[in-house]
Amino acid sequence: MTDSPAAEPTQDAEIEPVMVTLTFVTNEVDALLAVLSKYVVLSRMDTAARNIDLVASITKPGRFTIVEKWESLEAQQAHFDGDTMVEMAKACTGLLTEPPDIDLHEAVTMHDLG
Fold first, then answer.
1. What domains does the chain contain, in order, with CATH numbers?
2. Number of Cβ atoms within 10 Å of the Cβ of 24
3. 3-class SS letters over 71-112
4. Contacts 24+ apart (CB under 8 A), 60-64
5. How far, CA to CA in Å, does 32 sit from each of 46, 52, 91?
6. Of 5, 6, 36, 48, which is most buried with the most CB atoms under 10 A?
């Protein structure tokens, strides 16, 4: 039996990263920051996470955005269905002044710097 290059999975296949933004608005800043900070730390442990940051709005106090970059759409979806996301969503109950704004972005000029 001969090894055929066509029979081997392609390791060099281009995987398109995806970015997700999750924006939260609250009057309970300290409580929400505790929830979101824990979520960010735990989410960064996911091997498919390329980058996850938590930022606070300067112009709108009480508004926080998590910016997530995932290696693929499948990895992002698996994370959103996972325990870390579910735990964070439950912990936000009663802390938000409006529903979170969640948006999925495709790469236009997104790339890794590291």
1. 16-106 (3.30.70.100)
2. 24
3. CCHHHHHHHHCCHHHHHHHHHCCCCECCCCEEEEEECCCCCC
4. 60/25, 61/29, 62/25, 62/26, 62/27, 62/29, 62/97, 63/23, 63/24, 63/25, 64/23, 64/24, 64/25, 64/26, 64/32, 64/33, 64/36
5. 22, 17, 8
6. 36
Per-residue pLDDT, 15: 67
Mean of per-residue pLDDT scores for the chain: 87
DSSP characters over 6-49: GGSPPTT-----EEEEEEEEBS-HHHHHHHHHHHHHHHHTSTTE
83-91 vs 29-44: helix crossing angle, rounded to 10: 180
* Number of residues in the chain: 114
**Is residue 10 scored above 60 in pLDDT?**
no
Q: Residue 96: pLDDT band by 50, 70, 90 thresholds?
A: very high
* pTM of the predicted model as reported, rounded to 2 decimal places: 0.81
